[in-house]
Amino acid sequence: VGAEPDAPRHRLRLAPRIPAAWDRLELRRLRVGDAEASLSYRREGARHIFRLDQEAGAVPLRLVFEPALPGRRLLAARVDDREARLDARRAGARVVAPLQILLDHERTVELRVEEAGAAGEAS
Questions:
Q1: d(CA 77, CA 34)
Q2: CA dihedral sign of residues 92, 86, 69, 7
Q3: Cα atoms in the Cβ-side hemisphere of radius 13 Å centred on 10
């Protein structure tokens, strides 16, 4: 999941590379100092939905979130049910969609990607 905790700065970097065959993932108790965070993931076709939450700790963590998803390009992004513009980039056969958010409450990140093989491309 590419976890890099930085307790003095109350920061956590997560860079999950979700395998194409996975449609679910759940991580609990990711420790950063006295804080604990969780991540759950599910895929529904081209939609990749992440729920991120801080479950313990007095100071909200700043999350640097860089999921790498199988696909050609990012089609749409939503954070907490609001449209978001992300500076996505290709990394081989994956799309990386970085963002930074404060985990002061449960966050939902939904990314829709154009899958490899879409638009007439051979799989």
A1: 31
A2: positive
A3: 14
Model pTM score:
0.90
Phi-psi region at 81: left, alpha or beta (left = phi > 0; alpha = psi -120 to 50): left
pLDDT of residue 78: 97
What is the percent of the chain with per-residue pLDDT over 70, rounded to a whole number? 94
- Residue 6 near residue 13 (C-beta atoms within 8 A): yes
Question: What average pLDDT score do residues 101-122 get?
Answer: 82
Q: Which residue has the tokens 């993932």?
A: 25
Give me the residue label for tokens 């759940």.
26
**pLDDT beyond 60 at 74:** yes
81: tokens are 């049910």
